[in-house]
Amino acid sequence: MARGFWRLAESDPEWVAAVDPDGTEHRAGDLLARANRLVHGLRDLGLEPGDGVCGLVPNGADGLVLYLAALQAGWYYTPVNWHLTGPEIAYIVADSEAKAFFVHPRFLEEGARGAAAVEPHRRFLLGDDERAGFRAARELTDGWPATTPDARTAGATMHYTSGTTGKPKGVRRPLTGLDPDDSAELMTFLPAMFGITPGRPNAHLVTSPSYHTAVTQFGGTALHMGHTLVYMDKWDSEEMLRLVERHRITNSHMVPTQFKRLLALPDATRAAYDLSSLRWMIHAAAPCPVPVKQAMLDWWGDCVYEYYAATEGGGTIATPEDWKAHPGTVGKPWPISELLVVDDAGEPVPTGTPGTIYMKMPGTGFEYKGDPAKTAANRLKDFFTVGDIGYLDDDGFLYLCDRKADLIISGGANIYPAEIENELMVHRKVADVAVFGIPDEEWGEQIKAVVEPAPGVEPGPALAAELLASLEGRLSRMKWPKSIDFIAEMPREPNGKLLKRKLRDPYWEGHDRAI
After folding, report:
1. Segment Disordered: which positions (predicted)?
2. How far is CA 342 from its chain centroid?
3. Total number of domains constituting the chain
4. The domain that contains 463 carries what CATH number?
5. Contact by Cβ (8 Å): 365, 174
6. Which residues, 6+ apart, have CB-to-CB distance to 98 below 8 Å?
7. Which of 185, 133, 178 is nearest to 153 (CA)?
8. Which domain holds residue 70?
9. Of the ranges 67-76, 201-210, 250-259, 486-495, which one carries the lowest mean pLDDT score?
């Protein structure tokens, strides 16, 4: 079967390629026509291959059209995080050197503040609204034909890493010069590694914001394989189950936090929906506690796949069979990827010894746009790292310990917060948890836990004592939190990434060293 959205849309324009969160269906032919008109209009505006386009848009067909236009015209498309403030948006728009900026009316307030980085005639408001400082997007496309643009060439996405320090950096890869459909077909190696098959009646559920790399990659490649994309506007556990049943979802990309929320549903609710269509439910982005993963396998069967990767490229994969044989693993390297685990001197460490994880994937060179120093600093020869710590077992399976920046050093001992978080997370009275180091004059750092109680659970000393007692026999006492604080809602990005620095920084104010 041919792959690549543009080929598929021309051969079957009636295929329902996308379903918006409000249930609106979009046929492939209509999406293709919109993307083609957009290419014509932006070329008339002066855009050339290598230029950038930014979109501040919610999940749905509007953002998908921007993606499809850029990837067939040789442009870099940057979906902007809609949780950012105006100045943060302006930084990304300026740093990406965007020649066009599209804003959805929902995000107009902060989008208008961020639009100053683009000339007024290059700012576009989606929908039927017209506002000061923006042109209506229809002005750009009205009058242009839906015909296939000439001189089509593959573009790329350029996502911005969230990072833990400093401003985000765009991960920019060289353009290939390939035909867009040929490039899209090459991209489908990613879902193919999980055994995902092309064609209908497959449907992919988009559960997280499309501005995240993995969400764009898995959703985009599913589309290029002929799958229908079904979008969620925001995460809701029961709504996900409803959509799976209604649209016969076969695959999705998820995070462990979503698993935890699903498992918290009443048994009657979990049993009320037909989930028999599920075949490839893929998760990543954060460590998944072993009991949580096991519970999902028990519920959904052997359709839960895991991987470890980064925006920069390369990674591992763990099939359900791999994980059951090696509980806790994030898998073995992809066939085209390599792993290296090294000590602080850059030397390989023995099997079973934690070290910094480096990866590489041939043919996917990248740079952090505008930051050659950071690009070089994260490299070891032709390998790169995002700062995670892990180890390999005797069979070559990778296990994650934690992010290097989150390591707690107490009394000279290295303590990995993720290990403690995993043990606390499985407690039925815990909705979410974060563990980190805070200053301690005697030990250097002491272990602090911040817990978001499950709905209806009263926070306080009694709950703290119960949680600590639950660690008895499961975790060495040297790893027990010295104290537990409670929070109404944990600061997480919608992709499940914990914003731990927001919790940790107040404890380090006035101290010389903040780890």
Report:
1. 143-174
2. 26
3. 2
4. 3.30.300.30
5. yes
6. 52, 53, 54, 78, 117, 118, 122
7. 178
8. 28-172
9. 486-495
**Containing H/E element for 292?**
helix 290-300
Which one of 172, 201, 221 terminates a domain? 172
Contacting residues for 503 by C-beta, under 8 A, at least 6 apart: 434, 436, 450, 487, 491
Among 131, 151, 172, residue at a domain's last position: 172
Beta-carbon contacts of 92 under 8 Å, excluding residues fewer than 6 positions away, are: 54, 78, 80, 84, 114, 160, 168, 170
Task: Please give the radius of gyration of the chain, using alpha carbons only, rounded to the nearest integer.
Answer: 23
Question: Are residues 19 and 247 in contact, defined by beta-carbon separation less than 8 angstroms?
Answer: yes
Evaluate whether 133 touches 120 at the Cβ level (below 8 Å): yes
State how far the Cα of 417 lies from the Cα of 424, in Å rounded to an integer: 11
Q: Quick check: is 308 in a domain?
A: no
Measured CA to CA, the distance from residue 70 to residue 178 in angstroms comes to 14
Which secondary structure element, helix H or strand E, spans residue 101, and what is its range?
strand 98-103
Contact 85, 168 (CB under 8 A): no
382: in domain: no
Count Cβ atoms below 10 Å from residue 411 Cβ, excluding itself.
12
The answer to whether residues 263 and 289 touch, using CB atoms and an 8 Å cutoff, is no
Q: Judge whether 262 lies within some domain.
A: no
Distance CA 370, CA 64 (A): 27
The 10s digit of each residue's pLDDT in 431-488 is: 999 999 898 877 778 999 999 999 999 999 999 999 999 999 888 888 999 999 999 9
Measure CA of the first residue to CA of the last residue in the chain; give whole Å.
52
Residue 169: CB atoms within 10 Å:
20
CATH number for the domain spanning 48: value is 3.40.50.980
Asked if residue 439 is part of any domain, the answer here is yes
CA distance 246 to 235: 17
- Tokens 């995670």 sit on residue: 388
What's the predicted TM-score (pTM) here?
0.82
